[in-house]
Amino acid sequence: ASIVYESGSTKFGDTADDKHNFTGSAIILGSVTDLDPEDFNNALTLTANVGNGPNERGAGLFFKQKWLGSSAQVVNVGGISGVKTGANGTYGGGLAFFAQPNGAGDAQEVMRFNHSGNVGIGTTSPNDILHVSKAGAATRLRVGNNGAHDASIYFNTSTDWSIGTDTSNNNSLTFGNSSAIGTGTKVVIETGGNVGIGIIDPENKLDVRGTGTVARFVSNNAYVDQIFVNSGATNFLNFNGSTFNVYNNGGSAGNITLSITPTVATFTGNVTTEGALQIVSANISFQENTDVDA
C-alpha cells in the first residue's frame, strides 16, 4: 500500500487541488466516546471550509472503481458527503448519499439523512422518519422476497396490525390484528377478487360472517338504500324514516312492491306463495283488485 500526496502549492492543505491518494487499505484505530463533535479525537474527521448555506455540501468520501477490465481508468460509483440542512448560521446538518448513473454524468444524490433524523429516498427534504419519492414518475414501495414467504408491513402501536400477502392462504391480501400475517385475520381479499370479513376463504364477491349484527348501513340523511343491479334491472331496499320499502325495476314511488311500517305491511301487485300464507292481525283488509294466489 502507499500514500501519495498531491499539492498545488509548496504547503499541503492550503489549496483546493490538494489530494491524498491512498492505494491499498486504510485502517483507522481509535474510538468515539462522546457525541460532542469536539471530542471526536480518535475518529477520522473530514473538514471543508465551504457549504454554510442550506443544502450545500461539505466534505465527503467518493468511491471509484475500474470501469473496464483492460483499462486502468477508474470511474465514480458513489459517495457520501456532509450536507448543511439548516440555514446559514445554524447547526443543522446531515448526510447525503450519492450513486453514479449509468452514464458519464455527475453522481446524483439518492438518499439523505437530515438533522431531525428523517431519511429521504429520492427527496432532499424528508418530512417523516422515512420519506420515499420518485420525481416525475409513480412512487412505488416494493416489499417481498420473490419466494414462498409472507410479505407484510407491521404497525406496532398500542395495538398490533399487519397488512400483507398470506402464502398459506393462496397469497390473499390480508389485514390482521397481529404482528404476523395469518394470525388475527380480520379482512381478506383473494386474488380472484372475493372479499371476506370474518372469514379467510370468502365464497362470494363480499362474504361477511360473524355472530349477532354482521352488517350495518348508516346514512346522515333520513333514508338509507341498498341497490342491487343485474343485467336486466335495478332493485332497491330502502329504509326511509320508519318505513321499509322494496323497489322493483326502478327507484320511483310506482316501483314499490312492498312497504312496511311499524303497523302496516302493504303489497303492491300479486302475492304468490307455494306454501301456506299466514296473516296474523287484529284487522285484516284486502284492497279491491288485489289477488292472493295460492
How many strand elements? Answer: 21
Distance N to C terminus = 104 Å
Q: How many distinct helices?
A: 0
Strands of the largest sheet, in order across it?
3-4-5-6-7-8
Q: What portion of residues belong to β-strands? A: 35-45%
Mean pLDDT: 83
Identify low-pLDDT runs. 31-35
Estimate the global geometry from the Cα principal axes.
Answer: elongated
By helix and strand content, what is the structural category?
mainly beta
Tell me the helix content. under 10%
The string of secondary-structure elements, in order, is EEEEEEEEEEEEEEEEEEEEE
* Rg, Å, rounded: 36 Å
For the largest beta-sheet, the strand count, sense and barrel status come to: 6 strands, mixed
What does this structure look like?
It is a single chain. With 294 residues, the chain is mainly beta. It has no helices and 21 strands. The chain has strands spanning 2-6, 19-23, 57-66, 74-84, 93-99, 108-113, 119-121, 130-132, 151-156, 160-166, 172-176, 185-189, 195-197, 206-208, 223-229, 234-240, 243-247, 256-260, 265-267, 271-272, 292-293. The protein starts with a strand and ends with a strand.
Descriptive key words:
single chain; 294 residues; mainly beta; 6-stranded mixed sheet; 21 strands; 0% helix; elongated
